[in-house]
Amino acid sequence: MYQVNEKRLYKIFKDLASISSPSMKEEKVIDYLEEFSQKHGLSFTAYPCGKSRNVMMKLKATDVSKKSVLFSAHTDTVTPCENIKVIENETRFTSDGTTVLGGDDKAGIAAVLEAVLYISENKIPHGDLELLFTCAEEIGLVGMKAMNLKNIKSKLCYVLDSGGPIGTAAIQAPYHLFVGTEIKGKAAHAGMEPENGISAITALAGIISKLPSGRIDAETTTNIGTVSGGKATNIVAADASFALEIRSLSQKKMKALESKIIQTIKNEALKHRVKVKIERNLEYSGFCVKMDSPVIEHFEKACASIKIKPRYEASGGGSDTNVLQSAGLEAVNLSAGMSKVHTTSEYIKKSDLVKLSRLVTALIDKA
């Protein structure tokens, strides 16, 4: 069932993967999608987002009794992504080892486009289809956050942006909190009168040494990701800063850890006689999809139709799914089959790309 056109699918993927599209520079991918829409009778709307655009493509229902389905993937990739050379062998696609491949998330886009072509050519009845392709996902879900999601019609939403075997669904993902701290000490000549200065860097080191880091428990992590400070070795540093993140599947645990960290920063600042300015921002909310929800029922029906066993997992990372969920939409994040993402060793198996496109087709057909 659903014998998608493998040769065409591979070409779509290779064409997309060959396009350089770092975050906020996705224009050539957007041009590709617009041309695809014009050629195959989909509506195309682009929504400005900073220096880039999000894209919504729609295909009208041929059977109004069928439910509307939304599929989403992102158009940007991490770097290095200039002059990508897609290498194809009998079983997989890779880059030449000097860049990423871009299967994250061009695999998701390609699978959706081929599924749309397949159902159209084979006159498979379907409800309204909404294809949302977002920019700048890799730098903080920027594109999806900029969308007005109130206009989405679909009650069944699938983001194709996860790893693992095809048929894997991330039904839980964490809350993600950013905490940045600026430290103000007192400058002095480091050789002539260091005792008259208060080193912000020394205070920073003292503060960081007291903070929890890494895996806190099965649901919670924290990481100090950046530090900076000072101007020269002959000046007692007056300024320093650091930034950390907290992730947890539990909002309660995230808030408790945040309180502990902020209190520790303040206590240590007093000890070191420095002033601190703390900034916190919830990057996105977590979610947990109930196993008896309509989207899970639909997903399992589609998997059964192509003899794929569904797998469920909790993810430690965020995706556009978090934003959809925050807007009140039932969404899950499905595996797109990519492996070793965000590295120059990235690859995707041809068989997984085919399975993914068949799964998308089944999700359309079984709505």
Structural commentary:
- There is one protein chain.
- With 367 residues, the chain is α+β, with helices and mostly antiparallel strands.
- The strands form three sheets. Strands 1, 2, 3, 4, 5, 6, 7, 8, 16, 17, 18 and 19 form a twelve-stranded mixed beta sheet that branches.
> What gap, in angstroms, lies between the N and C termini?
16 Å
Name the poorly predicted regions: none
Largest sheet: 12 strands, mixed
Mean pLDDT: 97
Per DSSP E runs of 2 or more residues, the count of β-strands stands at 19
Tally of alpha and pi helices: 9
Task: Return Rg in Å.
Answer: 24 Å
Structural class: alpha+beta
Q: Roughly how much helix do the residues carry, as a percent range?
A: 25-40%
Shape: elongated
Strand residue percentage: 25-35%
Which series of helices and strands comes N to C?
Answer: HHEEEEEHEHEEEEHEEEEHEEHEHEEH
